[in-house]
Design a protein that fits this description.
Number of helices: 10
Structural class: alpha/beta
Helix content: 25-40%
Shape: globular
Order of helices and strands: EHEHEHEHHEHEHEEEEHHHE
Number of strands: 11
Low-confidence stretches: 303-308
Largest sheet: 11 strands, mixed
Mean pLDDT: 90
Length: 308
């Protein structure tokens, strides 16, 4: 009888999309959930924040033998990643979630569009983070405006100010890693971002293809996506490429209402679990599909080993 190999990863990442609210209006945004009658996002409730973080910490603890992922996967540590929407629209509550995760022994990270990052906020955030994630799709103001990566006053991100804030975060926490996410779409696929990425010097640059989960707006062809990737071959030391198929069943995601959700293969929208705080993480997690092999394929350089 053949044995399925056990994959050993350095960490397991749970992505909590704490809010759908964002001060930008990206046309391809897929952070849009069906509320299922649950109208209040958990990020507004301090008790719910703590309860959810504690349930995540318990269920995904590396030593929990009852987690179904352990059938063919092991991990050394657990990281809670806050995403959105824009999580820094709720700074105090996001910090509360991050600090509670740290108290429970989890590592923490956040993904932001960068518009709310200031030196003062970086001073508060940096000591508690292992990774600062930034969503950057272009250095061209017209492209950013076309995408919708601007606020209601049509203000786009200042790359110069952002670079200064990132530098301050690295001084505060020399172990802080920088990750940049770029969504390649119909407006930016011809751009050369080599200078921007080179200057910011991220530890990882994740290139994602526009995912038509909610809308086909700004979708692009295989050839256009591949052309963008090839143009940046000089940055392959930091580059991590994810096409649409790579994003299906490869993330552990929690929506703003505290439900696991997953990209539904071959169709628009998502599949959702029941509320984690109502039925518990074990039952809720059984209601969505997550592939340990696909999850680990996104962290190929961070795998420890495989054992039969």
């Amino acid at each position: 009888m053949s044995l399925i190999p056990t994959i050993h990863a350095r960490e397991l990442v749970v992505n909590w999309h704490v809010t759908e609210v964002c001060n930008y209006g990206c046309r391809y945004c897929y952070a849009k959930c069906e509320d299922g009658g649950l109208t209040k996002e958990l990020i507004h409730d301090g008790g719910a924040i703590k309860a959810l973080v504690e349930e995540v910490a318990r269920f995904f603890n590396p030593g929990n033998p009852h987690n179904p992922l352990r059938q063919n996967m092991r991990w050394e540590s657990l990281r809670l990643n806050l995403a959105g929407g824009e999580p820094l629209l709720y700074v105090e509550k996001s910090l509360e979630a991050i600090k509670h995760a740290r108290r429970l022994g989890l590592e923490a990270s956040i993904i932001t569009n960068g518009s709310r990052l200031t030196p003062a906020l970086m001073t508060a955030l940096a000591p508690h983070l292992v990774i600062l994630g930034l969503s950057l799709d272009s250095s061209d103001e017209k492209i950013n405006l076309g995408i919708g990566r601007a606020d209601r006053l049509s203000r786009t991100l200042s790359i110069h100010e952002l670079a200064d804030v990132i530098a301050s975060g690295r001084r505060i926490n020399p172990l802080l890693r920088l990750k940049i996410n770029t969504v390649v779409n119909a407006l930016n696929w011809e751009e050369d971002m080599s200078k921007l990425i080179g200057n910011l010097a991220p530890d990882k640059w994740k290139i994602l293809r526009m995912l038509p989960k909610i809308t086909d707006d700004l979708a692009l062809s295989d050839a256009e996506f591949n052309t963008f990737v090839r143009r940046h071959d000089c940055l392959d030391h930091a580059m991590c490429v994810e096409d649409n198929a790579d994003m299906t069943e490869s993330y552990i995601m929690i929506d703003p209402h505290g439900r696991f959700f997953q990209n539904a293969p071959g169709k628009k929208g998502y599949q959702y679990s029941n509320s984690i705080l109502v039925v518990g993480a074990a039952k809720a997690f059984s209601q969505v599909n997550v592939s340990a092999a696909k999850f680990c394929s996104r962290y190929a350089g961070e795998l420890l080993e495989q054992q039969s």
